[in-house]
Amino acid sequence: MELRFGKLFPIGSLTTIFIQIQYKSCLIFLYKLSITFEHITYYIIDATTMRINYYEAGDFGNFKIYPSDETEISQKFIDLETGLLIVVEAVRDSKSWGGKRHYYYTLHPRSGQVIEIADRADHINYAERKFTDQKSGLHWTMKRIHAHNGNESIKIRIEDPSTGELINTSHYFAFSAKAHEAIPKLYARLLKLKMEDEARKKKAYSDYLKKNQEERVRYWSGQLHQQMRWNGESGLDEYAIFTKNWLEEVRKFEPNIESILEQVFSKFFKGYWDIEEIRSRLNIQAGKNSKLN
């Protein structure tokens, strides 16, 4: 690996200093950069480039957005809550959900100026907000959370109106061109879903007990693979599901989960997911009869 300090070629009177890592044949930028050349500003992230021409009219103002040769602009819309222009850039990546990674940019809708993640707090409220529905007495809090790819989610905590106890925690994508579902309506829907889910879990557990060893291996392979891909699609840690607490909870109804996981690793995950990372998260050793340390 070679660490180099250098500069982009002078463009007019502008010279941009940068730091780069040369590893094998890959060039990795340590910082997001922006440079301007012939009225076009290039925003560089992970060695991909989104271009904005501020002298050409587009859909939202006197600027036009272009992807690079390696990317595509998958979405452009005005976020209803913040009024900001949201631009989603998709980068081809065979290891990500759907074969693409997504980056979310926030822009001023008229000027087209990109608002860096660190500066979003000047335009977006990230404080926890408390609400009460006068009709039902339902209490809830909402708080926006950053993801590493520039996307944002809203964490909702709903409390029981009579006891004040936490009864539900939910997340949904923050950026949206449409109004989000009203929380009392969301709560009623979630309550119904919870009852349906409990009935479904009872049936699923009953069905699970009837599975043989090979069927259980396939079951866990599908469940865990899907969860990790969902996490990646949402900009979250793909391996976040794997914790010691998760393992202890699973062992309550599947005492042989470690042995099953080893078969999942060898038959289905090898060459796709980082098996050693999963073992590290779960603090288990390799082998059919591995146990918690």
Query: Could you tell me how far the N terminus lies from the C terminus, measured between alpha carbons in angstroms?
Result: 35 Å
Number of domains: 3
Strand order of the largest sheet: 4-5-6-7
Portion in helices: 25-40%
What's the alpha carbon Rg, rounded to whole Å?
24 Å
Report the count of strand segments: 15
Task: Describe the largest sheet.
Answer: 4 strands, antiparallel
Please, how many helices? 5
- In N-to-C order, the SSE pattern is EEEEEEEEEEEEEEEHHHHH
Low-confidence spans: 1-32, 288-293
Mean pLDDT equals 79
Which secondary-structure class do the elements indicate?
Answer: alpha+beta
Strand content: 25-35%
Shape: flat
